Amino acid sequence: MHNPLNQTQRKRWRFSSLGMLVVAGFLILGSGCTNGDSTKSENSAGTETSAKESKAGDLQLSVASDFAAQVVIPTYEQLVIEARELSEAVNAFTSNPTDETLKIAQAAWTKARNPWEQSEAFAFGPADSLGYDGDLDDWPVNETDVKAIVESNDELTADYVKALQTTQKGFHTIELLLFGTDNDKKAADFSERELQLLKLLGEAFSQTSQDLVKSWVEGIDGNPPYQEVLAKAGKSDNQAYPTVAAAVEEIVQGMIGCLDEVANEKIGAPMEAKTTDDLESRFSHTSLNDFKNNIRSVQNAYLGKVPDAGTSGKSVSDLVAKADSKLDEQVKSELESAISAVDAIPDPIEPKIADEEALAKMKAAQDALLTLFATVEEKVLPIVQS
To answer: Whose CA, among 38, 56, 328, 359, lies 20 to 30 Å from 231?
Structure first.
């Protein structure tokens, strides 16, 4: 979700980190003389310290490299698969608009949301800098301008859709067209222009998801593959991550930003207003799915794996466990508590947004998320920064 109406609270931002410079093998000799055995002992200690620092740096670099290969890319690859199926389902519906083909297209939209929302904890790199985030998931939809497109005589082409504002395409414009404003749209409600626009939006969405994966795996528009940018953190020519610690910090900051957004914006804003206006996927009544997948995104980022894809690697969890095993267990426990609390919210939440029992469940989920947020920000972040 990209919210142009509140830039200061956007979940997409480029975290910068100065990191820490590791000085290894540095031997300080006091002014007093020492014998040979004493000097040998100090040299030995220095070498041991250097080896430990080197191993710590190696682990950090493995975390950064594995994060791209085992978490980011598999998640985006799943998005490509689901986006292609969404486009195909939309094409089938627009060619034969029946309630049955509409339901299939709607289900494909909901399924495509899963991997995308599970990428929310790592919306840095090309998703931000190359604009893929906005093209795929800008919000809120500019309903007035979308309606104007449908009612205009503009020629609808792939180039026309490509040039649209991000608030006029992507997930939520497709959602608005497929589901209507309150998840009650029927095949008979579609105009010919809506069908034409929907088809083009689906195809553009699929292409953008492919470009996003390519930006990480191969590089795009003259940019290097972003997985290499992470894997080469600390190199003298790496302006994005001048230190290895800076790359790992990017991952943790992504987790922090995601937790903050889910707790305070996705859950907090509608809970306070007691309306669906601020629920991101309110047209399809699937906002709760977004909450759940966002927390899975944080969990996947922390554990360095994507269970649905069967991938795993060195992780932030490994770094934390090495420094403080009890803290690692605390984070894992708080993640599970947050997931359970979100699972307890009535589904769908949209029709029950003003229900006191539902609001109490939302508050409990928000509290669990804020507890986890505080732990990650106050205890995990300092570890990866050191």
So the answer is: 328
